[in-house]
Amino acid sequence: MSARAWLVGMVLSLGLWSCEKQEAPLPRTGNEAQQPLSQQCAACHQKEYRAWLESDHAYAARPPEEMPAEAFAGQEIEAHGQRLRMERGEKGELLVRELGSGKARPVRVVIGRRPLLQVAVEGERGAWQVCSAAWDVERHEWFDVFLEDERMQAEGTAERRPGEWGHWLGRGMVWNAQCAWCHMSGYRKNYDAERDSFASTSLEPAVSCVACHRVEEGAAPAEDGCLVARGQRQMSREQHQAVCAACHARREELDEHFAPGEAFENHFTMELPRVPGIFYPNAAQREEDYCETSFRHARMGAAGVTCYDCHDAHSGAVLASMDDNSLCLRCHGNHTVINGRQAPYVSPLMTFVCPRESRGHVCVECHMPESTYMGRDPRRDHSLMPPDPRLSAETGIPNTCLNCHADKGQEWTLEKWEAHYGTSPRWYGQYRPRIRAVAAALRGEAPAAELAAAFEREEIPAWRATLLGLMSEGACTPEVMACARRGAADANPMVRAAAAELLGQEALPLLSDPLRSVRTAAARAALPLSLRHAGVAAELAETARHQADQPTGAMQAAMLAGAAGDAAGTERALRRAVQLDPCGEVARMDYAVFLAGQHRPTEALAQMLACTAAHPESAEAQYRLGLILAELGRAAAARRAMEKALHLAPDHERAARALQQLTPAP
Q: Over 50: is that where the pLDDT of 15 sits?
């Protein structure tokens, strides 16, 4: 039986205060001794505490003794390029042993609950490293979350080797930087760049009461005994959603000071569907993107629906059954109004293309289809887009119909769909032009005019921000700049931030924006002029320091040094970025460009040769290599590099122009 099923009396041994009314004893969690703050909350809020005890949040970070005993009984597994054995030490401690080197690393934390558990082990200089080997709680076996991920297999990224950023001992798997902020309460990374070490701390393990209810570190109870000050106890719908988004979003951390009640955009920048391979063109989740970005692109998210409209705030459970559509019909079956907008009515008796007795008649099967992440973890998409076999055929968006009809194929589902709804259903008029424009932009084919036209029609702020972000990859035509100027005045901060990227020095007025994500975007776009604004320059430097344990932080430091005219500082930072991710592509290319600009082409060539060796399928790396070879006067080798770039990416226009210039006249 789990430690969480032990029934014991409530222990409030801190002696800070007491509550007159006591209900039946509460279950004790394995973390209880380390959660004194939440134990105080439990005294008066037993119903909420009991619900939280069985939530996934309560299991987000667990002590090693909560790992099932059978999981560390000498099993061996091939994971991330090494043979590992899961065993127990002489004192019963859990150990992950590398059979090649014989090195045994003690387990420091257990992550998750179901369908799988991961462990973080002691690494170097205060870092805890997360194994890609995970324990399947139902099959009672170890497996590698990367090797079983179908997307990674298809992209050739499933195999992780020593020295790579994503290897279990690499920077991409450091618990302190990549995981802990969302798995601990009141977490501080405390990274020391000079020593390359962590001295991380937290108020409590797991996502406890103090993670979602504002409690300042070292705060004393209020007069009524509550750790949450009276002025911070009532939050708006938007503030509640920001608390969820802080962890359930793929985002860039600008600092580590977010607290419940604050704006998401004051501490984070949301990742948008503007980079190929991360999201699908309809904003559906493709990689392990969590769900906030997709939800913000949905009409429900834009209308102000929040997580708490479907999930219990403390248990995380859905508020009604999904199997009989009760959850969706809570709003869509009775004309519910949220934030002044009425939910479109859907009759419980409405007949769709699939028979009523089939799974196809269940709302979430079509609008929130499941995908499997980490090899064996099914999760539902939150973009809430309607299925569209036509767009699936055109853009590669997953065809939801094939989840049930895989044996029928794409053409069959399209034929059935259009026979039922027609070739141009009324409700797709607002979706299809936008998604086609985004899909073309992600392929590098969308003309600016098409994106601008989609921007002008768009009602959902997240989509306006995405369209502006995609425009930044092309030419700044008059249509694009007109959209950017309108975006700079948008009420939504995501749109203003995306507009700032296009405006360059015209973004300087946005340096006074009330939200940091907008100020950051404007400051980066308007370098070096933005460095004259001391407050904004300090924010950029703080973000670079906060991310200093990752290549992104080093590259931001290089950007700031370059803008300040500090060549030596730029080189130090770029060299640091390469050291942090020696197999990375972007850091080496940027370092090579810098060296070439410093009239050091031989050193630049060394960096690009290392880059192309690590990324032989990168057209951009071949193009950059060709430029440096041309600068060194090695025309024949430069032509070969440009030809390879065009072989890898036939639409690489810069490589085509360079090859034409390098080819001797007949």
A: no
Average pLDDT of the residues of the chain: 89
3-class DSSP assignment, residue 105: strand
Residue closest to 79 by CA, chosen among 93, 99, 50, 94: 99
pLDDT of residue 7: 23
Which residue type does 342 have?
Q
The DSSP letter of residue 125 is T
Neighbours of 13 (CB within 10 A): 8
pLDDT band at 506 (very low <50, low <70, confident <90, very high): very high
Condensed to tens digits (0 to 9), the pLDDT of residues 146-182 reads: 888 877 777 777 788 888 888 889 999 999 999 999 9
Q: Which residue has the higher pLDDT, 173 or 347?
A: 173
Q: How far apart are CA 177 and CA 198, in angstroms?
A: 9
Question: What are the structure tokens assigned to 506, written together?
Answer: 């015209």
Residue 665 has pLDDT above 60, yes or no: yes
Tokens matching residue 474 = 């092309």
- C-alpha distances out from residue 418 to 248, 356, 392, 421, 457, Å: 36, 19, 13, 5, 25
Gap between the Cα atoms of 37 and 161, Å rounded = 41
Q: 93 and 105 in contact (C-beta within 8 Å)?
A: no
Token pair, residue 323, equals 């199997």
Beta strands 268-270 and 251-253, pairing class: antiparallel
* DSSP SS3 for 14: coil
DSSP state of 74: S
Q: What is the DSSP letter of 377?
A: E
Q: Which tens digit of pLDDT belongs to each residue from 245-265?
A: 999 999 999 999 999 999 999
pLDDT tens digits, one per residue of 185-208? 999 999 999 999 999 999 889 999
Superfamily the domain 565-666 falls into: Tetratricopeptide repeat domain (1.25.40.10)
Q: Comparing 215 with 371, which gets the higher pLDDT?
A: 371
Q: Are 240 and 214 in contact (CB under 8 A)?
A: no
End-to-end distance of the chain based on CA atoms, in angstroms?
A: 81
Per-residue DSSP letters for 207-232? Answer: S-HHHHTT--TTPPP-TTS-SS-GGG
Q: Where are the alpha helices (DSSP H) in 443-585?
A: 448-457, 461-471, 478-488, 493-503, 516-525, 534-546, 551-563, 567-580
Pairwise CA distance, residues 288 & 68, whole Å: 26
Could you give the 3-state DSSP secondary structure of residue 295?
Answer: helix
Pair 629, 638: CB distance under 8 Å: yes
Residue spans of the domains in the chain: they are 64-198, 565-666
In this prediction, what percent of the chain has a pLDDT beyond 90?
71
154 vs 350: CA distance, rounded Å? 39
Phi and psi at residue 269, to the nearest 5°: -120, 125
398, 280 Cβ separation under 8 angstroms: yes
Tell me what pLDDT residue 342 has: 86
Count of helix runs (H) and strand runs (E) in the chain: 27, 18
Distance CA 381, CA 293 (A): 11
Strands 370-373 and 184-185: unpaired
Furthest CA-CA distance within the chain = 96
Whether pLDDT at 458 is above 70 = yes
Query: What is the distance, to the nearest Å, from the Cα of residue 348 to the centroid of all Cα atoms in its chain?
Result: 35
